[in-house]
From TrEMBL, chains A, B:
Gene3D superfamilies found in the cross-reference section: lambda repressor-like DNA-binding domains
SMART domains from the UniProt entry: HTH_XRE
Keyword Glycoprotein in annotation: no
Organism in which the protein naturally occurs: Colwellia demingiae
Domain HTH cro/C1-type: 12-66
Pfam families with a match to the protein in the record: HTH_3
Protein's UniProt name: Helix-turn-helix transcriptional regulator
InterPro entries hit by this protein: Cro/C1-type_HTH, Lambda_DNA-bd_dom_sf, TransReg_Diox_bact_type
Residue intervals passing through the bilayer: none
GO cellular component: cytosol
Length: 75, 75
């Protein structure tokens, strides 16, 4: 999976840690299947925007907070 | 499509306008099908993160710049 998806997953894990929200709890809060949450958490899946929004809301943060930085320098 | 997807599409259109990038140009820059770009632009599709990252890079902005704000007040 892309480097940027991995960076998103890193931010997700950090935000879960900050809020003390387990994968189980996140699954219940978002109504997203528990094993799929695990794959999202490990950066193994390329989720859609609506799942991103659900996860951000459950983590009480903005979607922008979970977004990785893109290197725009070589353009 | 969800209200948040519509707000994302609004930000996308605004960023295209700022950078004077047409839907055609965005299609070429991202290698995403021209008609699909049109549907993304109108908020008709729930795109995945990797497409979001491609679009942000083509628009020379960060993915966070295209993200809508979630109302976290009623939690």
């Amino acid at each position: 999976m892309s480097d940027l998806i991995q960076k998103f997953a890193e931010k997700l894990r950090a935000k879960r840690g900050e809020n003390n929200i387990s994968q189980d709890a996140l699954s219940k809060l978002t109504d997203i299947d528990r094993s799929y949450i695990g794959r999202i958490d490990r950066g193994e899946v390329n989720i859609s925007l609506d799942k991103l929004f659900k996860i951000a809301k459950a983590l009480k943060c903005q979607p922008a907070d979970l977004m990785p930085e893109i290197d725009l320098s070589n353009d």
